[in-house]
Amino acid sequence: MTAPNTAKRTVHLGEAENTLISQLLSAGARGAADELAASGLPTRRIEAYHYTDLKALLGEVPAIAEEAGQVGPPKFRVPGAYRILVANGRIQQSTTPPNGVVVSEAGGSSLTERDDVLVMLNHGLVEKSLAIGLENSVDPIVHIDHRIAGAPAHTAGALRIEVAPGATATVLETFSGSDAAHMGNQGTRVELGDGARFTHIVVDLSALNSRHFHTIEYAVGANVQLRNLLVNSGSALSRTQMFGVFAGEGAHGDFSGLNLVDDGQHNDITLDVNHAVPNTTSQELFKSVVRNRAKAIFQGRIVVSPKAQKTDAKMMMQGLMLSEGAQILSKPELEIFADDVQCGHGSTCGELDAQSMFYMMSRGIAREDAKAMLIRAFVQELLDPIEDEELSEALSGVVEEWLSRPAKSPAI
Amino acid sequence: MSTPMLEIRNLHVRVEDKTILKGVDLVVPKGEVHAIMGRNGSGKSTLSYAIAGRDGYEITDGDILLDGQSIVEMEADERASAGLFLAFQYPIEIPGVATMTFLKAAMNAQRKSRGEEEMKTPEFMKAVRAAAGDLSIETDMLKRALNVGFSGGEKKRAEVLQMALLAPKMCILDETDSGLDIDALKVVSQGVNHLRAPKRSMLVITHYQRLLNHIVPDRVHVFSDGRIVKSGGKELALELEAEGYSAFDEAAA
Ligand SMILES: Nc1ncnc2c1ncn2[C@@H]1O[C@H](COP(=O)(O)OP(=O)(O)O)[C@@H](O)[C@H]1O
Ligand SMILES: [Mg+2]
């Protein structure tokens, strides 16, 4: 716990920080600019960024995105979904929304302000956010197709999803773009009315040389059933941070994620779940598959407030390392202030099981195919709960694409 | 004399710096069933793994020929496609891999590597149903993940099912009788006997003589401390049962 003495200490600012500061100033966010100038980007000394030292890793910050030209077909498509295309932070295309879906725009970021550089940048840079109101149960999946198009660009965007009490809906957010060293900073706030049943799927397929940051907030009402699934297979550097707060009794949340990480990638999933009221339950399941010299990070914290009796929370992290240079870092934390609770966490990390490999090969299945079958099996547990077949198939497609990427020899 | 189905010459195998097989010589002619008997820890499973090509089973000397062709440089999957099958003493549970998916992948992988056409789903389903029926395997069991939650007996029957579907020319059965009650033993033995054919050979590894009442071997080999120490006809199994393995340890020394 090193609280930096921001008042007096002078921080050396690098090129990335200076670019960000001037971008904040151009956007009229003087407060944020001053704050960034005073503290700089977080380094590994800041606990929340210990594994993702933004100062060291961020690299060059591209210019703020201009309006995008015409963009190509989606990389991730669910037939039958209602799709809203957001290119370089602006709605580019949407058709008449299905019954119960209200699309509008609001000023500024949708995120709650908090002491976090990504949130601060989002607040400073987002002019208008997209708001999706789900006023009753919506059958088609609502797909927000985020793109960054053209030359390397820095895009900040925000989304507010409001789900009416008792409504059932699924929102899919995908991130992709042109093959350039983009930087995206997205904020998503999800407000779940009492008794809502909500599924939130987030897929990052950004170009392998881009930087992707996403902050997600869940405000969970009473008796809500929430399921989230995060699938990362893109980006050179990514951090998805989720903050969930249980504010009404009787709710359950399933938080899950899959990091598919290959040579040179650094993907960070950070989760903070706060059981603030009694009688809520959550289950957290996060898996990483890492190949070649790459890094997958999972930080998960579950906080149980003093009055949150009868909380039941189980967090599990599982890692599969496919190469010597692969790194999986996980930090599960429980902070429990109530006494009548059931909470636990576990973390396992290993390689493909040699016995299983031999068994499969002894039946004629070639080594690479046997590996792929075992990786699919490892991942399947996360996809099984997805009831929509077309969505589930599209998610399997992401896994297949990752499996079929040409093998690189690990960089030494 | 025609080429034997399996020929093992002076096989020495090391596992993690420990030499376990110390000069195995064995010839199994086409169409014959041979039994290997030996006490626990004598190296029988090691022999089966070395033949099947498990990683880490280093052959330091000798050779293994399948139908006249050396297989020691081949990967396990290539040996399988060349016609070798090992029924495991302890079949591996693989959560998340559906039994049917696995069976189909295995059959088609072997067909592909032999340049044959892939099997279509209806044809595959028909073959599985027929083979499962012969072994009293409930189709419900095949809907589960591979070997997961199977009882000991179900696992062994599933091994013989795979053997029937893959139609290998050389079958190695490692203690297929262990963990089976007498009824299951009969079903499994019938399944195995059903597969006996002039162009198929078998090596039946067992600890107890009782299996050999059901699968009657052409020859019996006694295994001790990583070697075959005595070979004979099927009556050798009875002799072994009567006198115990220790009588044969002398022969090894
Ligand atoms: N992976 C291994 N590493 C080291 N020693 C092993 C390994 N596997 C088996 N062994 C040893 O090899 C010997 C033979 O084992 P095994 O082939 O399983 O015998 P059997 O099948 O006849 O009971 C035993 O002494 C056993 O402890
Ligand atoms: Mg054994």
Q: Ligands bound here?
A: adenosine-5'-diphosphate, magnesium ion
CATH third-tier fold name of chain B: Rossmann fold
**Percentage of helical residues of chain B?**
25-40%
- Counting structural domains of chain A, the number is 2
- The percent range for strand residues of chain A is 35-45%
End-to-end separation of chain A in angstroms reads: 35 Å
Kindly state the percentage of residues in helix of chain A: 10-25%
Supply the CATH superfamily name of chain B: P-loop containing nucleotide triphosphate hydrolases
Number of strands of chain A: 19
Sequence of secondary-structure elements of chain B: EEEHEEHEEHHHEHEHEHEEHH
Task: Choose one word for the global shape of chain A.
Answer: globular
Oligomeric state, counting identical vs distinct chains = heterodimer
Q: Find the count of extended strands of chain B (DSSP E, 2+ residues).
A: 12
Low-pLDDT stretches of chain B are none
Specify Rg of chain A, calculated over alpha carbons. 21 Å
Low-confidence stretches of chain A: none
Name the biggest interface. Answer: A-B, 23 and 32 residues
Query: Approximately what portion of the residues of chain B adopt beta-strand conformation?
Result: 25-35%
